[in-house]
Phospholipid-transporting ATPase
Amino acid sequence: MLGIENLPKLAGPFLKTERKGPAAMIQQFEQDHGGGMAKDLAKNRRVVMPSWTEHEEIKELQKSYSRNKVRTTKYTFLSFIPKNLFEQLHRFANLYFIFLAALNFVPIVNAFQPEISIIPIVFVMSITAVKDLWEDQRRRKSDQKVNNRLCDVYDRKQKRYVERRWAEVCVGDLVRLCCNEIIPADMVLLHSSDPNGVCHIETANLDGETNLKQRQVVRDLPQGSEFVPENYSSHIECENPNNDLRRFRGFMEHPGKVRVGLHSENLLLRSCTVRNTETVIGIVVYAGHETKAMQNNSGPRYKRSKLERRLNMDVLWCVILLLLMCLIAAVGHGFWLSGLQNPIYMIPDDTHPALAAFYMFWTMIIVLQVLIPISLYVSIEIVKLGQIYFIQNDLDLYNPVLDTGVQCRALNITEDLGQIQFLFSDKTGTLTENRMLFRRCTVAGTEYPHHENGPFTSKHTPLILWCAVVPDPQLQAKLNTLSSAMRSPPRQQAAEISHILDFFLALTVCNTVVVSSPTQPRHVQMPVVRTPLRSLEEMKAMFQKLSLPRFPSSLSQNTDTPTSLTKKLFTRGRSKLLYEAESPDEAALVQAAKAYGCTLLGRSPEQVLVVVPGTGPLSIPLLHVLPFHSARKRMSVVVRHPLTGEVVVYTKGADNVIMELAEAAEDGFSREVMERTQRNLDQYAREGLRTLCVAKKVLEEQEYEAWLKRHEYAETSIENREELLLESAERLETNLTLLGATGIVDRLQEEVPETIEALQEAGIKVWVLTGDKQETAINIAFACKLLRPTDHILMETCEARLHELQHEIRQVTKEGVSEDDSSDCVLVIDGRTLDYTLQKELQGSFLELTCCCRSVICCRSTPLQKSQVVRLVRDKLKVMTLAIGDGANDVSMIQMADVGIGISGQEGMQAVMSSDFAISRFKFLRKLILVHGHWCYTRLANMILYFFYKNVMYVNLLFWYQFFCGFSGSTMTNSWVLIFFNLLFTSVPPIIYGVLDKDVSGETLLDLPDLYKSGQNSQAYLPSTFWMNILDAFYQSLVCFFIPYFAYTGSDIGVFSFGSPINGSALLIILLHQLIESRTVTWIHTAILLFSALFYYAFVLLFSLTCVTCNSPTNPLGIETKMMSDPLYYLVCGLTTVLALLPRILCRTFCNTICPSDLVRAQKMERLSAQDYSTSLRQWKENKAAQRLSSRHVPQNLSVNADMPHLTDCIAEAGAVLS
């Protein structure tokens, strides 16, 4: 942690004691370091003054900043062709085919007409260019619409606000916005029509969150009915543009040399919408592409899938195969020329056979270029778009309540969904609803069970919760003594009531909840209240009952309260209030406090308006808010108590953290309270409740002043601000007095147990990474069937225990437990132990242990630990990982996994914005992975293999012909058919195949999760599968070439006439081969196959009838018509097709009959009647269960109770966790 003595050094050169204006600073820097320091200053930070400033240096500096015009297009009219060509030339495949096309223009090595050779690459690159141009045109129209929006900008010459286009707004402009207007640039808030200096914005356009965010005017700026721009003479220094939406560091220096820290609460972000505020005025600090919205506009996510990496390797094998074939042809050509003795049919040439062989090598590269599938990459993109379309339009994955379906944010890893081996899940909001209900609490060591809590209902988004909390009678009775007119309670009871009052006051004010009203749009404007509604004498009497200190006399100055204000406040108190919270926990706690009469009425940056039992509304001065931080695991507010005048710190946070901070403040009473509270916390955790502790601290004025001075220093720093603020908060949150703890229930989402059970049956190892207590996580794991009553829980609490468990698990493994889902062991590990196991020397032991467990539960884990665990498993075990979460704390884990899935839940949209796929409920994961994942992987894998097969098969026909033409590079096919065969005639069917084929129906895949294991094991695309397809292509090419060869041996047909039946046979073989491989044959498949065949024959017939010089120097006129009029043509084509496909048909029939795979068995089951299908399904599951049961030999010495004696209670109560 940074020491306070280092603050001046860390804060940077601009936080020195001597305060100077921006111009003076620049001059001083230029004197010290020479000229041009304005540029150096701009490199370090940004200086912003009103655009009409007289300082020439500042003017020049602000001119260098980006203007507000945005351009998301990639091209201009002049740059489109060169820039698009340059981008496409970055693809190796395009470079390869351009090289071959250029090579064909070299006379000595050309294979056919040079003009024809450029057709494939021109065709593919033209399609890509048209697609890019269409997308760019859409972006251009969007940019024009945005840039032409209007806003009010202050014009000093005209002394008024004038309308300007967004594109004309500059840094330093003062912009005025009204309610429901969109913010044109990032602005520091200078004025709000709200008397409390508050503005509310909706960030849905930025991050998808619809709950309102509160922003506030910079401190110490005058707030009146009107803002006079001419009077604004402060300047701003802030950090340079960045993409962190939740961070803004800088300070504003007023004319009196007083500096005020600037935070994200002072910044209005571009693209957000002003809500519930009549007028706001701000000064632009970032414009155009420097705004945080544009800095985060990175477009669709791109990842390389596992299948794509495998594909690239096989393309290299095809390159090697191509070079080998070309080398054979070149050597053969050289030997053939060497064996000739002045043949009369050749033009005399002095070229040496070795040099001719070298030339022939390049000629054969041109002839056999189709071996590298140029259209494969384009086809893969089209197929993935089709797969995404069907995923996003699946009604089973649609949530009618939220009106959302699946969002596919990463466009190129759909097939990875079918190969997942490890799944890492958050708990709260992912497995559970993240809609909290206050269930129990303990105050001053006394537990209040709240047995009569009513039903829990909620609205969905924004997070506006109506929680029916029925107060506990005993706790309610104690609070009622505050408003009773009876005699004062005994001193011991008064102390307890004081604890209770502080407890509920902490729940009411220690939060960031925004108050809303059904009769007003989403927000209640908080009236200014400076005094309680009751008389001070009544207040004094009430606190005298509690034997609390009397009021300081200074508070007796403002005793009058306007009658109208009193009436207004009491009217509001009786109306319904809605609480909008960024966290469901906060909303539940505020609702619980409201049920006991401690009602939050409104909030402003300076005060909180609450109702306390026995009083009217109280205005509590809000001095500081120390927001929640994942490192501190708590939040605090510093207030001035409205009755005692003391400075009080209220803190709430994780129980283990608060209990540690309260230990130093122990006395006899506090020690007893802490012991009883800890016992209650353990009980809450066993019941699966989310626990939270509440504490307070009373500060002396001198102590507060000393802390405030250092805290303000940290607030105004630009460099290292987060570290300094964190240290400042930790310095304050010490020696706390424990008030109590709460237990909140978070119900499981529907169908979570069934989903987890199905995923585990599919062979996916499910890990839960949560920040909750160990007992809570285990209890929820039982409820969602991640843990079974028969499971053996291994508790890892230290390094020694890790090695002990590792030894025990080795003994288990020796007795026959396989390292898969058949294991009965589940590892539970906490955050502290996880830190040890993530060290390099222990990683291997940890992974060895986890591989022998069916599941792992990581408790008390931080966001950083979550991402470290995912990376460790992904990199060390070389497995496919998926991470799923719903909150900002899950973002690092989601981005680290191979596939990241965000849930659009109650914690905003940060996880969704960082994910590859977004769903609204955890149950949708079941079909997304088991059905769509399986289909996408199987379809794409089979399509890629089919592409390799058809290209190798057709190219080999040309290769075999070289043995009969002296390896001269000649072809028996005219160049037009040669080019179009793979590019047009046979390219559409595999695309349809890749989008629509279903090897097994979705219902069967859900009924039999075991079928998913075929994708995990890459059974559809193994190296052996690839080479079997290549060998089959070689065999089919031999049949396709030599049957016509022997059929026409001795005849006088020409070369192209010989090639006609070969091309016809090849087309039929390739199309029927796909029909054999297809598991689904619909009218679409049939129509496309027929269209491809008819398209080929229509083209060659038209070509034969019309083209005289299309294939110079040869003449293809009449060849096809003559060949097709001969019955031998059809006999050859039919016999060739049957003999070529017969081995594949026989092999598939034999394998599916003798040793059918699970997929084949499932396909057979689908053909049965409904009754027989149900019987077969039940028998299948019984057999699988018996197989898993027979592999378990877990010894009984792995006892659960050894480490966790109370775990039996968890098991017993697992069924009642969420009742």
Remarks:
- The mean pLDDT is 79.
- The longest strand covers residues 617-629.
- The CA atoms of residues 91 and 231 lie 58 Å apart.
